[in-house]
């Protein structure tokens, strides 16, 4: 059977949350998987994938192997499910995976909003500029040209300036949209790291991307730790989740410190992986044996930080673009009103 498309972040979260609930209620794995099928959608991709999992489990395959056969899950989920099966912590692992992918979905939607909303504003500005050039300004120009007997050259020249401003602004906005489109295509074509390096140069984006990478690492590290991995193993596996070269370099320093026999908290502080206020909260937690709860708390703080910084950036972009739109409309209105004032003065 052909493998299905991978589930979305929200789909993975829902699947894992449902599995955690049913396993916690004492339902065996095969029956739990069967209960996830959607009624009336027997031929849907999700139901087909779930049927593959059910069949493989009933044939004696491990849940990890069955999920891998369905083709719906990323490798990280499969690794964690395998760990949960081997340590007898499947319910806990599914619960943590549900929380992890739920937060990932929320952050992903926030990042999309931060990108899409300004892009929509730019497209609106382009539409306004286009209408100004093709409809508004020509209409007034035609009217004024019929009245040029009393219209001074200096007064009429305001419309020429408006034409120039609108053309220049339209070209700049169109180039900006083209650059964004090219960057998106390159991002989707395998140049993800190169594009992210360029995006980091935009004011406000660097902190968002680094905190997002730290969140991914910290959340994955916490899940691996709770599943029974040693700290150095968990750090090595979680490192693959962050997706940021600079953060990966700091994690490399963290691993070097841990190889010298230091704990995660001390190593995180020495390698400057987190901001000092975050790193220091781990040290007393590790000494008291509450590292996992501290990591979970830290993941929440990093997630909140990403959301807050994204909101701040979005607010700034909204203000700038709204200002551009208002200035564009104001200049166009002035350009058509000033000649009218000149005509009225000449008549009066």
Bin the helical content: over 70%
Largest sheet: none
Number of domains: 2
Mean pLDDT: 81
Please write the string of helix (H) and strand (E) elements: HHHHHHHHHHHHHH
Rg from alpha-carbon coordinates: 29 Å
- Beta strands, count: 0
State the separation between the terminal residues, measured CA to CA.
Answer: 85 Å
- Number of discrete helical segments: 14
Helix/strand-derived class? mainly alpha
Strand content: under 5%
Judging from the principal axes of the Cα atoms, what is the shape?
elongated
Unreliably modeled segments: none
Q: Short summary of the structure?
A:
This protein has about 350 residues and is mostly helical. The chain has 14 helices and no strands. It is elongated.
3D structure, described in words:
The chain is mainly alpha-helical. The chain is elongated. Helix 1 runs antiparallel to helix 6, helix 7 packs antiparallel against helix 14 and helix 10 packs antiparallel against helix 11. The protein has 2 domains: 94 residues, Type II secretion system (T2SS), domain F (Receptor-associated Protein); 239 residues, no CATH class. The mean pLDDT is 81. It starts with 8 loop residues before the first helix and ends with a helix. The longest helix has 57 residues. The protein has 14 helices and no strands.
């Amino acid at each position: 059977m052909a493998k299905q498309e991978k589930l979305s972040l929200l789909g993975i979260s829902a699947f894992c949350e449902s599995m955690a609930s049913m396993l916690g209620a004492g339902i065996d794995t095969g029956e739990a998987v069967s209960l996830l099928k959607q009624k009336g959608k027997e031929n849907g991709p999700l139901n087909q994938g779930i049927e593959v999992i059910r069949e493989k489990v009933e044939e004696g395959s491990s849940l990890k192997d069955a999920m891998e056969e369905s083709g719906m899950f990323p490798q990280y989920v499969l690794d964690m499910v395998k760990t949960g099966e081997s340590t007898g912590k499947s319910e806990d692992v599914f619960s943590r995976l549900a929380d992890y992918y739920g937060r990932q979905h929320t952050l992903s939607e926030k990042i999309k909003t931060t990108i899409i909303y300004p892009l929509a504003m730019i497209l609106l500005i382009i539409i306004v500029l286009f209408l100004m050039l093709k409809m508004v300004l020509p209409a007034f120009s035609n009217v004024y040209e019929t009245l040029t007997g009393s219209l001074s050259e200096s007064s009429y020249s305001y419309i020429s300036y408006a034409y120039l401003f609108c053309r220049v602004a339209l070209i700049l906005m169109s180039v900006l949209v083209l650059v964004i489109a090219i960057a998106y295509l390159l991002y989707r074509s395998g140049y993800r790291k190169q594009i992210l390096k360029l995006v980091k140069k935009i004011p406000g984006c660097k902190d968002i991307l680094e905190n997002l990478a730290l969140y991914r690492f910290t959340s994955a590290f916490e899940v691996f730790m709770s599943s029974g991995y040693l700290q150095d193993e968990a750090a090595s596996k979680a490192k693959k989740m962050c997706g940021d070269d600079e953060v990966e370099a700091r994690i490399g320093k963290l691993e070097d410190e841990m190889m010298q026999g230091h704990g995660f908290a001390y190593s995180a502080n020495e390698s400057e992986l987190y901001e000092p206020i975050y790193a220091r909260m781990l040290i007393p937690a590790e000494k008291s044996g509450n590292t996992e709860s501290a990591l979970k708390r830290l993941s929440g703080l990093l997630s909140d930080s990403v959301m807050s910084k994204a909101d701040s950036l979005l607010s700034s972009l909204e203000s700038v673009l709204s200002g551009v739109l208002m200035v564009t409309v104001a200049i166009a209105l002035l350009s058509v009103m000033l000649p009218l004032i000149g005509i009225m003065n000449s008549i009066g």
